[in-house]
Amino acid sequence: MPPVVAGRAERLASVYDALLATPSATVSSLMKVTQLSRPTVTGLLEVLRDQGLVHSLGAEGGVGRPAEVWATAPSAGVVIGVDLLHSSLLAATAQLDGTVTGVDLRQDVSLDARQRLDLLIEVINQQIARHQPSPVHAIVISTTGTVDPEGCIKRSDAVQEWESFPLGARLTERLGLPVRVENDVNAAAFGEFAIRCSDHSLTSSADLLFIGLSRGIVTGLVLGGQLHRGSHHDAGEVGLVITEDETLFPGQLRRAAETIGAVSAVLDPATIVVALTHGEIPGALDEIRTHLATLRSSSAAALNLEVPRLGQASATVGALTLALQDARQKLLGHLTARIPCPSNLTLLTHVTAKGSHVPMPSSATTQHRPELRIGVVGVGARSDIAKHFELPGRNCRITAVADPHPNASQRILDRLGRDDIALTRSVTELIGTGIDAALVTSPDDTHATVTCELLRAGVPVYLEKPMAIHTADAIEILTTAHETGTKLYVGHNMRHMNVVRSMRDLIRKGEIGEVKAIWCRHFVGHGGDYYFKDWHATREHGTGLLLQKAAHDLDVMHWLADSHTTRVTAMGGLTLYDRVTDRRDHSDQLMWEWFSMDNWPPLSQQGLNPVIDVEDLSMMLMQMESGVFASYQQCHYTPDYWRNYTVIGTEGRIENFGDYEGGHIKLWRHRSDYDPDGDATYPITGDAGGHGDADVLTTGEFIDFVTDGTPTDTSPLGAYHAVAAAIAATDSLRDGSTPRDVPTLDPEVVQYFENNQVK
């Protein structure tokens, strides 16, 4: 192919850039974006097609002469990025459009120079083989030490055998492909820069300072959208030792703050990313901010300090981004204006969540397990569950929140009680902050999408009930958890309520014989405030209140029966709240802001949701796999608010009166007429705050499950059976009470969850 002249190369890059931004585009749309003429765009598309970089998708439909639609070609080739550290290697392959298609994490990497080189070549060759016949257009290696422009490692404290080692030349020779070598901190800086460019929090010409903290300080700097290496390619080696200890601990960050303050005063970067190379130090960013507040003058501009969004994958993403730039420079003769951040990064975050990939593993780190970093998705009415993670002795800290709501910052303060929690606007960004586990308390219709993304990223999930609002979504969650092996926990906290556990214990002791029937009456006295003033009132966002409220009770009944529902029928309707004409949009509020016990009687309610299409009265009949029959009834305008379970066995029955502190359970074991006292009374202790007190127990159970694999009383299988039965009943209710069978699950998935999520 003849060389491309500079002007034409720039235009070629602009057209390719436009196609990357718009997966399928016509010549007319490309003309608008590039400000080029039709003949020019058409000619450049032909050049790109000849190179195999783009292809035609055919003609667009519509009236008149159809326009041809163009897109980048997935088979145009790949790039490879590798981060080789002291004792681990993380490699990734991406298509030219940036889509990550392959990942490989190797641990226990040898320090022997020859073995390290052989392993590096083996991993790269495997990535090449997996993507054949797509050509490899660029390879970038990120590694520790000072690296010169030819890829020679001038200095390597981590691997002394690699001092003056021509890594780039050796790899190029062995692979038969050009290989570029970069310092790992520089690569991490560029990765963090690229991910921020992709969500437009930084422009492609912005500055970013990346600071890595361990015993000392190292930095990577992006200036004007390009890596700054310095005249001796040693710009990031500050050389300042923070502590003589093997690793950092709280209280040792003053010198780090001094350096950050001094460097920032000179460079004035838009963003400063502070990474702790051995893992999180509880409150590290807070400590640095505190020191900076005393070190800097009150008139100094505030510094934008952030944690890494990519965690242990920062340098690999940086290497991939640089490889994408190299490939486009080679193929187009000019860099595209967009910073080509890789996509589909969950493949990377998944493997880093499963294994460690840090510069210098420390024995102190393993001896003192770092706090579990908790991310919260959605800071709505139920998000205050998160505060239980920070109870003394739990070794957890809420570090980040994902919530796109305009009031999210204030809600974090109101619901979680802290103003130092990082706010992100998407789950992808939340994952990138390096969280260890997540609490999902977002609206019900988002549960499946949010949870599956977290699970695929290797982030264990505490999912607030109901699991999902569609059966297919609930199945997808279970399947994703099974396929990824990432731990899943669903917050059916009523299994930890004293009333439920006491009834279960009585059943297990044989006090009522073999269970044959379970009835539940749910008096939802607060229903008008809880469910008819926001998205809960709509089928679109919740399916129905039979699902929202029955999910708890169905799980309880299944647990008491040691079985699950297989067939249902139901009836009900919207019998009262549709008559309330006072309506209002409460999207700027949370439930506690409009709740009042004075909203009585129900027809005097005010400010109901503009759309109400769910039932306020419903009842369902169930047949369980074991032969147990059950019924459930709910009403959302009763004067009182509690639930009553009656369990009938072959030798007696039990029934609760009240469902938390102050209530009691009665047992009848002898034949009689009306007997209000029964044969025994068991007080309900604890749960003074209702089932919310059980949240303390479920969060603790989740922590133990995630950290130690401790078996749990809650069950994702149980959560599915409750949701599937409630959804089937809702379908029955809205279709003339026709019976519905509850969909079954893949036996392999069932076995996995029955085995405490161990394959």
TrEMBL record:
Pfam families, per the entry: GFO_IDH_MocA, GFO_IDH_MocA_C3, ROK
Domain GFO/IDH/MocA-like oxidoreductase: 500-655
Source species, domain of life: Bacteria
InterPro entries referenced in this protein's UniProt entry, alphabetically: ATPase_NBD, Gfo/Idh/MocA-like_OxRdtase_N, Gfo/Idh/MocA_oxidoreduct, GFO_IDH_MocA-like_dom, NAD(P)-bd_dom_sf, ROK, WH-like_DNA-bd_sf, WH_DNA-bd_sf
Residues passing through the membrane, by range: none
GO MF term (any one): nucleotide binding
Domain Gfo/Idh/MocA-like oxidoreductase N-terminal positions: 372-492
Family: Belongs to the ROK (NagC/XylR) family.
Protein name: ROK family protein
Protein's organism: Arachnia propionica
Classification of source organism: Bacteria, Bacillati, Actinomycetota, Actinomycetes, Propionibacteriales
